[in-house]
Design a protein that fits this description.
single chain, 202 residues, alpha/beta, 5 helices, 9 strands
């Protein structure tokens, strides 16, 4: 059984090989989230996977309300076992924006960002952690089309992307949705550069 300790949090991956193991992208998003999150915030993590980023926030911040959503049933179970409140759903389908409790100060997302053809898909549930469609931005675009409905006024999003995803396309899309955009974390890893893009709702 794999266990990861990071910034006061201990996360177990259980015995499933269907759950994405936290890697450099997970660590970068967790670090960025710790910088932007504040006590008293309502926080939503989309696509929580093992619950790693949420567990780091819960281990380090008091008085936050944190909810996570995840499509992979194995990952959702894993996140719950790591102390994260999880709704199993595809992006925002399982939560209704008209309810005040479903408006958040901060929404986090590490989307699948690898450009993926039909022939390159990974078998089973783990594909959801990698498959960004042909552009690498298909799931991210779906997220961005809806995320405003789940933010409080002035709320923020933190999105992990890769240089292979196309920074300018992502930046322009987020700006077009009515956000102020900046890059708050960057890390060169192997053949790509990982970045955390922050959008602040104007």
């Amino acid at each position: 059984m794999v266990e990861i300790e990071y910034r006061k949090a201990r996360v177990s991956l259980g015995d499933s090989d269907c759950v994405y193991e936290p890697a450099e992208d997970s660590f970068l998003l967790a670090d960025a989230a710790l910088e932007d999150a504040e006590p008293g915030m309502r926080i939503l993590e989309v696509g929580t996977g093992s619950g790693f980023v949420s567990a780091v926030l819960l281990a380090n911040l008091k008085d936050i309300y944190l909810l996570a959503i995840e499509i992979n049933p194995h990952a959702a179970r894993c996140a719950r076992a790591n102390g994260v409140e999880v709704i199993r759903t595809d992006l925002f389908r399982g939560i209704k924006p008209e309810k005040p409790e479903n408006r958040f100060d901060l929404i986090l997302f590490n989307p699948p960002y690898l450009p993926t053809s039909k022939e390159e898909k990974v078998p089973g549930w783990l594909n959801y952690a990698f498959d960004g469609g042909i552009s690498g931005r298909e799931t991210l675009d779906r997220f961005l089309d809806e995320v405003r409905d789940y933010l409080k006024p002035g709320g923020k999003i933190l999105v992990l992307i890769s240089s292979i995803t196309g920074l300018e396309a992502v930046r322009e899309k987020i700006k077009g949705m009515g956000f102020k955009v900046d890059i708050i974390e960057r890390k060169k890893v192997s053949f790509e550069e990982l970045m955390v893009v922050r959008g602040i709702l104007l």
